């Protein structure tokens, strides 16, 4: 087993960070949150030379899950996650697509496996602990690899900001609780990739994020 490697593919008009995570020796990896622009994701997979073993979803919003079924059809792999509390969001992606004026551009998603707090996902030998972190979305999960001191936090936490809570299923108090009770204890040295914009560290956000001070 080698080291974890990552690449970000910017997708959808929402500028979402679809993430490729893989082992740099086996070159086997996962696609996290393929929200759309499947051709762009396929090209990134080709460019990196990885073999994708699974699709992981942090939550059910259109920009994170709207391309999951199309990519599953292309790659023949399972969709894993998020938590089952995002069933309604995943089942209404096509309605969201119509609302945004792009009917047919995104598909509803049906995970092959839901994730729960305490579950673990394996990316070519790299073990990621699953934490259920509601607030931005009811079924939002994050993925944490203790050995690499690395997490993928989706839209829970951003550099200098936090996830929106004004969307259906959002709850500000729950989001702050998720950040302070689930993310902060991971440690200040933990770096993370998020769903939009540049990544950061838990410590930097704990100390400087205006929404958390």
Topology summary:
Blueprint: E1 4-11, E2 16-23, E3 28-32, H1 38-48, E4 51-56, H2 62-65, H3 68-75, E5 78-80, H4 87-91, H5 93-99, E6 120-123, E7 126-132, E8 141-145, E9 150-152, E10 157-158, E11 161-162, H6 172-183, E12 191-193, E13 200-201, H7 202-208
Parallel strand pairs: 3-4, 4-5, 9-12
Antiparallel strand pairs: 1-2, 2-3, 6-7, 7-8, 8-9, 10-11, 12-13
Q: How many angstroms does the end-to-end distance come to?
A: 39 Å
**Mind summarizing the main beta sheet?**
6 strands, mixed
- In what range is the share of β-strand residues? 25-35%
**Would you report the number of β strands?**
13
Shape: globular
Describe the structure.
The protein has 213 residues and is of the alpha+beta class. The chain has a single domain (4-208), classed as Ribonuclease Z/Hydroxyacylglutathione hydrolase-like (Metallo-beta-lactamase, Chain A). The protein contains seven helices and 13 strands. The chain is globular.
